[in-house]
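Working notes for the structural subgroup meeting. M.R. asked for a predicted model of this chain before we commit to crystallization trials. I am recording the input and output together here so anyone reviewing the notebook later can reproduce the run.

Input as submitted:
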Amino acid sequence: MDIKPLEELQAADERSLRFTPLGLGQMQPEDAADFQQRVIAGLRLADAETTRHKFEQLRTAHSHGVLCYELFTLVADVARLTLEQTLRDRFVAHHGQVVEVRDRKRHEHQITMTSYSDFFEQYKKARGAEIRMGASRVWEPFNAMLDGLLTWARREGMLRGQRNRSLEPVLRRLRNMVAHGTYHLTSPVEAARELSDLAEIINHLWGHATPGGRLYPAPLSRSIIAIGWSDNGEYTTAGYASQLAQEDEEGRFTYVLVRAVFCPGGVTDPNLMEFDARSATTVFPAQYLWGPGLRAEAIAWLDDHRPEPDLCDYLDQLVLVRVNDDHVYLPTYPGVAAGLPRPEQDGTWYALRVDRGLDGLAHVRAIADAGTEHARDGECSACPVEMLASGDLTTVLQAARHAGADATPLPVPDVRTPLRQLA
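Returned structure, recorded in token form:
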């Protein structure tokens, strides 16, 4: 090892200067130090005292990565290891001092613990195999390791989202890669992402969503939106419905009013222009309100009804998919399915838990293949979908209600935008 003078140790590492707010480039040391601190400055933790101290250590190390590029790798690696620590902390906080355990011979025990390490040692001595999980408190296998803790947190509703469920095995493998020691070098971008994801997971474990989050975002605001298209189909438009009376239109437009995620410069549903009143074709849940009709009619309806914006949580949505005469239909929401005309209720239906409606369509299409690895019941390991039930519409609506969905019949007209009409 070369012994470096203090002046050299205090000098910026040239590798860290290449990462700028606009991508790869070159920054001055002072600007790089300011930038890397601002990248992680907004990360906040909820009630997780023990983990918070570890998190602050990582934040400090990341800030010093400008001086030593290898610190970014250490930050990312320790963040991956900290995931297990925070799950352990949450396990202890959730169970208090006593955990019910069943051993391999199905004998039941009670373990009194003072910490997770204490529980782990007693669990091994008792040859523990299962603990009670979930709202129904059923016995489920538990190995007390990271994968067992991830399963436990999901069964207890502390981790959710079908796409996040698909990510959890990756988190376990990344943690094992760090624990079992393979050399690698991580960029500041990756280190910041690991810290950000860790903060989201910690906060969600303690019941706090993250505004604008990548994994566990807070509910999104849905505004009242007017989607319009010209008679010749050449032009389409979308904007706040409140602005309809303030704008002039060239030619004759037809409009439909919806409640949807729309915020120019912020989060806007990328599939908004493919809105279908009876189908879950948008990325975030969109609700049909009125239409189609002319602008004057839309303005009159708004004046009479004055609909309000609301919030929508899109993780773990409940959608239904119909299969009839070998045709797989687009996913729909339970209330819409319950209000469909009788001829459109025939066939086999599937109730699915998804984060994106079209994930359900892909899954049902996949299980039609006899050789597919996609699950026909429960959580699918091949895609971000959980199958809740299948059968006739009455059966799957009952399953959807049991899972917490509102299945009140909604008589929604068959309305779709020109983009959906062409699909």
